[in-house]
Write a structure and sequence with these properties.
The chain is of the alpha/beta class. The chain starts with a strand and ends in a 5-residue tail after the last helix. Helix content is about 50%, strand content about 15%. Strand 3, helix 3 and strand 4 form a beta-alpha-beta unit. The chain has a 5-stranded parallel beta sheet, with helices on both faces. It has 7 helices and 5 strands; from the N terminus they run βαβαβαβαβααα. It has one domain: Rossmann fold. The chain is elongated.
């Protein structure tokens, strides 16, 4: 059997950390590497423990999850991080992915999906539940629709002549 996947749990609520711990501890291929209750502790623990996967909330006192993800990934570009949060809007999902998260889950996630996300991210894959992926796709499509503009009118004959002269180095 290969080494277990070592998981760092980061959440400011002890009850949430306990729930995650309870879900993980019974799995033979998973192991708790440590816990942290805020972003600064997460950075320090990630540095010291070098977990295979970090599960991190975004909303925490002091340094929030986004700041912690950014700093952890700056120190260790190979760090694998799953966000586990209550924020379901497109903006925090995009921000977390841009910061370096490879997974994004909502706190109402089913235990099996949490475990699957940990295993997928540990293997170097990404993990987004269908509802989150749908929000991202909708946001991209809406953004694309907003940025499409009407075609630019062609230059007149005179404008083309002036542009040609400018290209040849002419001035007034």
């Amino acid at each position: 059997m290969s080494n277990p996947i070592r998981v760092l749990i980061v959440d400011d609520h002890p009850l949430m950390r306990q729930a995650i711990r309870t879900a993980i501890i019974v799995e033979p291929d998973l192991q708790i590497a440590g816990e942290a209750s805020n972003g600064q502790e997460a950075i320090e623990r990630a540095r010291a423990l070098q977990p295979d996967v970090t599960i991190m909330d975004l909303l925490m006192p002091g340094k929030d999850g986004l700041q912690a993800i950014t700093e952890i990934r700056a120190e260790n570009p190979d760090a694998r991080i799953i966000v586990l949060t209550s924020l379901s809007e497109e903006e925090p999902v995009v921000a977390a992915i841009n910061a370096g998260a490879q997974g994004y889950l909502l706190k109402d996630v089913q235990r099996d999906d949490l475990l699957r996300a940990i295993r997928e991210v540990a293997q170097g894959n990404t993990f987004l539940p269908p509802a989150i992926a749908r929000k991202l796709i909708d946001g991209i499509q809406q953004s694309k629709a907003k940025t499409q503009t009407t075609p630019v009118e062609p230059l007149t004959e005179r404008e083309r002549a002036v542009l040609k002269l400018i290209g040849q180095g002419a001035s007034n």
